[in-house]
């Protein structure tokens, strides 16, 4: 079974991060638009609007999705720098920076998912998609130091 090269893994991290930026930017736009309903409202439980309208959707008037935009943009930038041949950023390798930000993203995603399920009692499908992207990027970041 063929394995992915380091370059392939970095390219995949960049692509997944770009999807994450778009997803989180759309969620941010949805928060500011505050429409009465969203296309991803499937029922009372799978409801992006219910999550968006909750007290957990913003901190200090800033939508939490903007953290996703920033986090995915940082991951994208790190992957692009690594693809261009840069090996270190400050005291750490880019692999370590990617792992650090992927862990942070997965941690934030896990925390927000727990809040959705147990506090808000609704699931935002687009938020779950963002969390899945976080986990996929984390999986790739964990394997980077072992790639060829």
Strand order of the largest sheet: 1-2
CATH class: Mainly Alpha
Termini Cα gap: 15 Å
Overall pLDDT confidence: 93
| Shape-level CATH architecture | Up-down Bundle
Beta-strand segment tally: 4
The helix tally amounts to 5
Task: Name the structural class.
Answer: mainly alpha
Tell the overall outline: elongated
CATH topology: de novo design (two linked rop proteins)
- Strand composition percent: 5-15%
What composes the largest sheet?
2 strands, antiparallel
Report the order of strands and helices.
HHEEHEEHH
Uncertain runs are none
Domains (count): 1
Report the helical percentage.
55-70%
CATH superfamily: VKOR domain
Radius of gyration: 16 Å
Question: What's a concise summary of this model?
Answer:
Helix content is 66%, strand content 5%. The chain has 5 helices and 4 strands.
Structure description:
The longest helix has 28 residues, at 6-33. The model has no long low-confidence stretch (mean pLDDT 93). α1 runs antiparallel to α5 (125-143). The two termini are 15 Å apart. The protein has a two-stranded antiparallel ribbon. Strands 3-4 form a two-stranded antiparallel ribbon. It is elongated. The chain has a single domain (6-33, 58-116, 126-146), classed as VKOR domain (de novo design (two linked rop proteins), Up-down Bundle), CATH 1.20.1440. With 148 residues, it is mostly helical. The chain has 5 helices and 4 strands. It is 66% helix and 5% strand.
């Amino acid at each position: 079974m063929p394995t992915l090269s380091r370059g392939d893994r970095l390219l995949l991290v960049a692509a997944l991060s770009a999807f994450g930026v778009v997803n989180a930017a759309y969620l941010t736009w949805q928060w500011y638009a505050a429409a009465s309903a969203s296309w991803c409202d499937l029922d009372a439980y799978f409801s992006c609007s219910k999550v968006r309208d909750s007290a957990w959707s913003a901190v200090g008037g800033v939508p939490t999705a903007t953290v996703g935009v920033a986090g995915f943009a940082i991951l994208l930038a790190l992957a692009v720098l690594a693809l261009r041949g840069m090996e270190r950023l400050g005291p750490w390798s880019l692999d370590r920076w990617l792992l650090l930000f992927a862990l942070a993203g997965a941690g934030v995603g896990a925390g927000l998912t727990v809040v959705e399920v147990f506090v808000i009692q609704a699931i935002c499908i687009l938020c779950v998609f963002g969390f899945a992207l976080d986990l996929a990027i984390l999986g790739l970041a964990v394997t980077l130091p072992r790639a060829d």
